[in-house]
Every structure is written in structure tokens, then in C-alpha cells.
Amino acid sequence: MNTNDLGINIREEQEKKEHLYFSRFAAFSDESQGRDRPEEPCQIRTIYQRDRDRIIHCKSFRRLKHKTQVFLAPEGDHYRTRLTHTLEVAQIARSISRALRLNEDLTEAIALGHDLGHTPFGHAGERTLNALCPEGFSHYKQSIRTVEFLEKDGRGLNLTKEVRDGILNHRTAGMPSTLEGKVVRLSDKIAYINHDIDDAIRAKIFKEDDVPKEYSDILGNSTKTRLNTLINDIIFNSYDKDDICMSEDVEHAMKSLRQFMFDSLYRNPQAKSEEEKVYKLITELYSYYVKNVDELPPNYLRFINECGQSKERVVCDYIAGMSDQYSVARFEEIYVPKSWKI
């Protein structure tokens, strides 16, 4: 027996509940601007729930587990990867959206998709491709390209406009059109500032006591207390407002702590000691595939030959989609001599 036999449409029931419970500033599922290619609505899931599920089941999402967050190829099991970062962003963003009575499904879909276009080896890989590609490269634009084109061999995931807007605008300079997107934009920073501090302490780059007291006095002196302070501050300053806000002192402390992280970790010679090798590896891969496009996988060749994409852009697509380990394996296969075997 299916929902048609019972005369029940679960999705419609959920959409009615949204209008009864959500804040008037929330993005309602039945008021979405929709998809580029219209689809028959699901009888069980709302439009944003379907987007969330598509992202979780796509190949680009699975590859995040082997992509660098900050520390390149860490040997410890507890260092963050791009996937665990994504899950932490989603958890923080969902907590904020739930408290503000926003659309938690839209929030989660944006959070889970926001870094799908990230390169191997984190921002070192991103900077390298941006320098190499004539069209430039940025991970937030690549995330959109991933969901609109690269997934499903050129068909994309056909996500809603609201989810794509949130993914595109999750960067610091972004201006999301929904409150849910604004929640993810802040949650991304809250997540990486705090988990990167935790990983830096684990790596003995610095100690908790090295965090400037002027910031810890406001935000707290542990990951738990900082997260609690930041999340609560957003909730209580944004409640029943058509914006996502922070108090002035907490926002200043967070931005200053972010700058401390740039000075102490993101530009730290010890933590970044392997990045020169990353630049070399990705540069050599890019140069090789631009000169030997016929060695790209068949689906990427089709993007060039049938879809009119430039070879430079498609080579960037291929490299950006690689995991750390796969990019090293491809480099070794191309450039490292192999032992003779009879």
C-alpha cells in the first residue's frame, strides 16, 4: 500500500506544519523559487529535503572524507577533514535554525553542499588552480559548478535556487538571499575557527593558553564554551528578526580570533611546511592534462568535445574533484619511474 492508496500526501502535511510553526522570516518549502528543470513533487519529502538527500548521495560529497581541511594528510585519526568540517557546519547551522524557527532542511542542504567544490589539499590547492587556470578558480564557484553541471555526467543535481544561492554565498563576502543561507555563512566560520584551534592544539602548534585573553574572556577558553557563546549570541540577537546578527563585542572577538588563527596557524611555517610540494604536484598535474587531454576520463572528455567546455576548465574540474590520495597516486603514475618487472 502506498500514499496514494491511503489518500495521504505527507509532503503537503509537512508544508502546512511549516506555516504553523516557522518564523514569518523563514524560507517555506512550498514557496521555493524551484529548480531550473521542473520536476514532479515528491509525496513524502519537501523540496529542500530532496536537495539535502541528493547532496548526501552524490559522489563529490563522499570524496570530501579524503580532502584536507588544514593539516595535509594527517596521521592521527582525530584531525578534521573537509567532510568532518562539513558535518560540524551542518550541526551548528541546524541548531541555530531550529532555535530561530527557520527551515532546518534548507539550512542543512546548504551546509552539506557548501564545500563540494573544494580541491585536494585545502586552500593550497585552491590557490594553485586559481593561479594556473586562465578563467580563475574559487571553491565556492566550483561548488556551484559541481551541483549544476559536473555531477551526474553533466546533468547536475538540479537543486533549488535557494540552496544554490546559499552555497555560492557562504564565503565571508557573500550575501545570501535567505536567513538560512546567512546562518550557514556564519556557522562555517564558527566551525572552522573552533575546530582548527582544537586541531592546532592537538598538533602542538600552540596551546589553549596562547589564545589571547582579550578574546577568551569574551568567548571562553575551550572549544565547548566558545561554541556555546557564539551560537547563543547569534540566536538571542537574531530571534524574530529579518536578519542573522551578533552582538558587537562577540562579533569583534570572533573576527579577531579568526585573525589570530591566520597569524598563528594558517600562515604558520610548521603547519604549512608541505604546501610547496602541493603547488608543485598540482601544477605538474595541470600542465600534463592540458597537454594530454585525451588521458582524461571519458566523462571529462565529453565535457570538452560535446559540451563546449574549455580544456583548461575541465582539467581544473578533474583535479579539483580529486582526493588528496588520488592526486598523489596520479602524480606518481605519471612522473615517478616504476620498477621493471618481468
Brief description of this entry?
By secondary structure, the protein is mainly α. It has helices at 3-6, 10-21, 47-57, 59-63, 82-99, 104-113, 122-132, 139-150, 161-168, 179-202, 213-219, 223-238, 248-266, 275-291, 298-305, 311-320, 324-335. It is built from 17 helices and no strands.
Query: By CATH's scheme, which homologous superfamily of the largest domain applies?
Result: Hypothetical protein af1432
Terminal CA distance reads: 62 Å
Global outline: flat
What is CATH's topology name of the largest domain? Hypothetical protein af1432
Low-confidence stretches: none
- Report helical residue fraction: 55-70%
Strand fraction equals: under 5%
Number of strands: 0
| Quaternary organization | single chain
CATH architecture of the largest domain: Orthogonal Bundle
